[in-house]
Fold this sequence. Notes:
By secondary structure, this protein is an alpha/beta fold. The chain contains eleven helices and 14 strands.
Amino acid sequence: MPSAIFTRGLMRDYGSVRAVEPLDLEVDAGECLGFLGPNGAGKTTVTRMLTGLIAPSAGSAVILGHDLEAGARHVRRTVGVLTEQPGLYKRLSARENLRFYARLYGLSSPEARIDDYLKRLDLWAARDRPAATYSRGMAQKVAIIRALLHEPELVFLDEPTSGLDVESALTVRDFILTLKGEGRTVFLCTHNLDEAERVCDRVAVFRRRILALGPADQLRLDLSGRQVAIRLEQEGRDPLAALSRLPFVRQAHFAAGELVTTLDDPQSQTADVVRVLVECGARVQAVRAATASLEEVYLKLVDGPSR
Ligand SMILES: Nc1ncnc2c1ncn2[C@@H]1O[C@H](COP(=O)(O)OP(=O)(O)OP(=O)(O)O)[C@@H](O)[C@H]1O
Ligand SMILES: [Mg+2]
């Protein structure tokens, strides 16, 4: 199957400031890719380039089989985009806003779809009120619907749940899963790691360039190593020093009353760790697998040097 997004050396400078280093990225059709990174990492810049809203400084991209340079106009019409700002017509209601945009897309009878989406995103009661009276979260949800009106195969969502309360965020998250279930490709910029882990097939940790890319559980294992947490009833004599002498213990520290060790291969090495601890006079109460969270992996990656 051809890639939904394919870039080679795609980069962007703002004046003398490089916002995005040359980027090679492939996103499969039907895949949900999470794009994570700190403020100013260049996520929105990448999204704007991939949707034909701004031109890259160099490099190329093929979006749904169309070269972006030659066909930016086509790409803009074909993909769905939720930008950082909802940008609704304040005097128009949700329904009027959506009908207006449906006309721009040239949709012939969008009413049923608009009403269906309004219901699914809990906006039905507010459908005829002017958008000026909407909360930020409500406006955000209308903008999400606008991005989907023309049933795009590829949807870019730039922080869709920012500013949403817990319940609305859950609704939107479920909605993203529905889009995925319908076979659409989703490019999801988010600061919410839990969200990325729940809905994305792969996540990219990005700061001007991709720092890591893969399924979230793979990144957790690859970048944190396999961790084993050991609760000790008695510490014995300097267990950290004893463990540091084992060649396969990559790291060991105490956290929240447990001795957390990072091993190359816990399956074959945990028994030796326990033996060494017992030899130090420790009494072992419990042993459990404790691979790092995506948040820990993320912080490790983005807290590193910027170049
Ligand atoms: N129009 C612009 N003119 C000049 N610099 C810009 C412009 N847009 C973005 N930048 C700069 O490019 C870099 C990347 O910004 P971008 O908005 O892409 O980051 P982001 O990852 O989306 O951040 P956030 O998480 O805060 O939304 C930042 O240093 C920003 O200041
Ligand atoms: Mg942004």
